């Protein structure tokens, strides 16, 4: 598997997007290598491992050893046995954003670990109203959208589902004062059409075919639909479809 490829073992894959600014990739890689806590299985120390900087991307793993108990019968008596397992998440760092996927517990510790290595607080990327609105405008169609009105309104939160071209046609929201909590719809990508769901607090889920090889370039294209004011260029026919 190449550094820019992700094999999707289910029908969807979810990412957490973290905000990271004013750092070049080499300085981030050096910070992780020199000041980051490295994973140590023997001493059960959580940390980074198997990380590389290649083709303008840092990619690696963050793992944690977790104890857990299993209740079972021994000679007719209920007893508990302590076991341990490794939980991991993968991280991808580009010059624009940090993407996390995998288990939630190590993902939370990764955020703390990266912040300590860089000497700053790392937080989830919060997509603003303009970005969320721009993203739904760039979809082929909207499948669902969650909207929030001001607290003084009778309807504070509404979820619209179906096939919409423009959610503002519906009169359940304050047209001048509302927020977009999440939006889901069909987008055209270099790897074909797929469903993308974006949550305001830094979440991105892609609905794909099971076993698909997803590329970082494709993910970046989708993020450009969300983050870029001018939008990405046209979908290239030179991309390989799996």
Note down, in words, how this protein is organized.
- The chain has 242 residues and is an alpha+beta fold.
- It contains 4 helices and 13 strands.
- The protein has helices at residues 25-35, 104-118, 129-137, 216-227, and strands at residues 5-7, 12-19, 47-54, 57-74, 77-93, 98-102, 123-124, 141-148, 157-164, 179-189, 192-199, 203-207, 213-215.
- The strands form 2 sheets. Strands 2, 3, 4, 5, 6, 7, 8, 9, 10, 11 and 12 form an 11-stranded antiparallel beta sheet that branches. The chain has a two-stranded antiparallel ribbon with strand order 1-13.
- A hairpin with a 2-residue loop joins β4 and β5 (77-93).
- α1 crosses α2.
- The model is unreliable at 236-242 (pLDDT under 50).
In brief, what are we looking at here?
The chain has 242 residues and is α+β, with helices and mostly antiparallel strands.
Order of helices and strands: EEHEEEEHEHEEEEEEH
Spatial extent as radius of gyration: 21 Å
Structural class: alpha+beta
Q: Major sheet, described briefly? A: 11 strands, antiparallel
Give the overall shape, derived from the CA principal axes.
globular
Segments where pLDDT lies below 50 for 5+ residues?
236-242
- Distance N terminus to C terminus? 14 Å
Mean pLDDT across residues: 87
- Percent in helix: 10-25%
Strand fraction: 35-45%
Q: What is the number of strand segments?
A: 13
Give the helix tally: 4
The quaternary state of the protein chains shown equals single chain
SSE layout:
Blueprint: E1 5-7, E2 12-19, H1 25-35, E3 47-54, E4 57-74, E5 77-93, E6 98-102, H2 104-118, E7 123-124, H3 129-137, E8 141-148, E9 157-164, E10 179-189, E11 192-199, E12 203-207, E13 213-215, H4 216-227
Antiparallel strand pairs: 1-13, 2-6, 2-7, 2-12, 3-4, 4-5, 5-6, 8-9, 8-10, 10-11, 11-12
Helix pairs in contact: 1-2
């Amino acid at each position: 598997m190449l550094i820019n490829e992700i094999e999707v073992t289910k029908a969807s894959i979810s990412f957490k997007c973290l905000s990271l600014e004013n750092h070049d990739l080499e300085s981030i890689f050096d910070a992780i290598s020199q000041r980051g806590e490295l994973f140590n299985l023997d001493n059960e120390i959580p940390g980074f491992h198997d990380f590389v900087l290649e083709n303008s991307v840092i990619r690696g793993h963050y793992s944690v050893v977790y104890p857990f108990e299993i209740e079972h019968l021994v000679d007719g008596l209920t007893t508990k046995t302590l076991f341990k397992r490794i939980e991991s998440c993968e991280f991808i760092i580009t010059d624009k954003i940090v993407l996390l996927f995998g288990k939630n517990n190590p993902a939370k510790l990764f955020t703390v670990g990266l912040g300590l290595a860089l000497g700053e607080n790392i937080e989830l990327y919060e997509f603003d109203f303009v970005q969320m609105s721009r993203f739904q405008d760039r979809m082929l169609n909207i499948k669902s959208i969650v909207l929030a009105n001001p607290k003084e309104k009778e309807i504070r939160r509404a979820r619209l589902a179906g096939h919409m071209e423009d959610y503002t046609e519906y009169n359940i929201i304050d047209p001048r004062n509302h927020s977009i909590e999440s939006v889901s719809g069909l987008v055209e990508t270099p790897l074909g059409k797929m469903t993308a769901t974006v949550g305001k607090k830094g979440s991105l889920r892609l609905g794909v075919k099971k076993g698909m090889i997803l590329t970082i370039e494709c993910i970046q294209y989708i993020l450009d639909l969300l983050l870029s004011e001018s939008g990405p260029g046209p979908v290239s026919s030179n991309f390989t479809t799996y």
